[in-house]
Amino acid sequence: MATEPNPLAPDWLRLPADANELAPGLWPTSAARSSTGELVIGGVTADDLAAEFGTPLYVIDEADARTSAAELLAVFQAEFARIGTSAKVYYAGKAFLSTEVVRWMIAAGLNIDVCSGGELAVALAGGADPARLGFHGNNKSLAELDEATRVGIGTIVIDSEVEIGRIAEASARHNRVQNVRLRVNSGVHAHTHDFLATSHEDQKFGIVLGDAPRLVELIRAESALNFVGLHCHIGSQIFGADGFAESAARLLELHATLLGGGPVPELNLGGGFGIAYTSADEPTPIRDLAAALADIVATECARLNIALPIVAFEPGRVIIGRAGVSLYRVGTTKAVDVSGTPRLYVSVDGGMSDNVRPALYGADYAVRLADRVSTAAPVLVRIAGKHCESGDIVVDSDYLPGDVTPGDLLAVPATGAYCWALSNNYNYQGRAPVVAVMNGTARVLVRGETIADLLARDTGALSPTEGES
């Protein structure tokens, strides 16, 4: 048994006492090992899932997602009721959206946040009341705005000055008074990857705080618009409440100023709450985060001597992320020597087409054998994808039993958010299916794509008869 960590391993990665262990906090609540060592999720073994649906495969623990949504809403409502106001929670559909997920979130009491005409269509197809939807985006098209106002969407987040007139025109065309928020950049840069930070000034989203009073005047001058409040989003995968505290303080200063010109009933502090992707991650518990945010809002409103607004949030990853697990089949293994230190490359049948986050953000993930356990000594592995890119890495560094071999089934946890949503067809790889598991049964949420599906979009593809000689 290895007793020292591999020198090639990052400092945060510990050498596990048991390379079969399912680290707490990374896996769906139902995940466990069977008596024979197989990974079981929602009462279904990984082997059975792979046999029925193939790999790569996204697996979502339905009970975990539903419970996370309901518990998060209850916690935020309780904490904001404690300070004398109420909270709204919008599920951020960009994390992962399907018609069934829409139904889960609505049943749990959440609203839905969408960012495109496509996401709007999915939410409506899932039976969502348009009044419970919010619409984001830095470049919403005229067609998207027309459709959103036509169906009676609850709120639209204004992201730039030009959108004021566009939304007003669309609303008037459909004889509506449209509720709108104004997205502002508080100047708070959350401690995250630069590409994930969304509230510093030099970026595409929102407007600077100093421009907000003038734009709110323009909004209030439009009879087809109803200004309900400010919106801010300081980033993604955030641990701790310090960034939210500073952002909320700056927003409430502006909120207080805007009250001089009319009502401002709500304040939307966005989302971005982090989850654990590796055993080294220590995300802030939602209960602690909700309590801290409620205290921040109460303190600042008391200091400014203003009424408490309704406070809205937009979590996505923290609801659906841990509920997801990706399954892969090992194709090849390759031992490499890095200046005298070994690393084992383990190549699987997916990669950056089903999880592009490592390539985009340098995101770290964990991995475990899914079809068995092993007493072999742990070795440092890098899980590589099958695509024609050296940066096609699924898991940069973790330990697996040293006897990992072609044909093994692997599981990568915490892939419920921003994996299927960012999936692609690189190297003409069909997107993987999404399957929900609960109470020992599995059902398809989103079917996978076949080569025939991809060729059906290629107008130059020959039919089978045309290809015959």
Name the shape in a single word: globular
Structural class of the helix and strand makeup? alpha/beta
* Strand residue percentage: 15-25%
| Biggest beta sheet summary | 9 strands, mixed
For the CA atoms, what is the radius of gyration? Answer: 24 Å
Average pLDDT figure? 94
In DSSP terms (H or I, runs of 4 or more residues), the helix count works out at 12
Helix content bin: 25-40%
Please tally the β strands and state the result.
21
Distance between the termini: 60 Å
Low-pLDDT segments: 193-199
Which short descriptors sum up this protein?
12 helices; eight-stranded parallel barrel; alpha/beta; 28% helix; 21 strands; 469 residues
Notes on the structure:
The protein is of the alpha/beta class and 469 residues long. It has helices at residues 46-53, 62-82, 99-107, 117-125, 142-151, 162-173, 212-220, 242-258, 286-304, 317-320, 357-361, 451-456; strands at residues 32-33, 39-41, 44-45, 57-61, 87-92, 111-114, 133-135, 155-158, 178-185, 207-208, 225-231, 266-268, 310-313, 324-338, 341-348, 368-369, 378-384, 393-401, 409-413, 434-438, 441-446. The strands form three sheets. Strands 4, 14, 15, 16, 17, 18, 19, 20 and 21 form a nine-stranded mixed sheet that branches. Helix 6 (162-173) links the parallel strand 8 (155-158) and strand 9. The protein is globular.
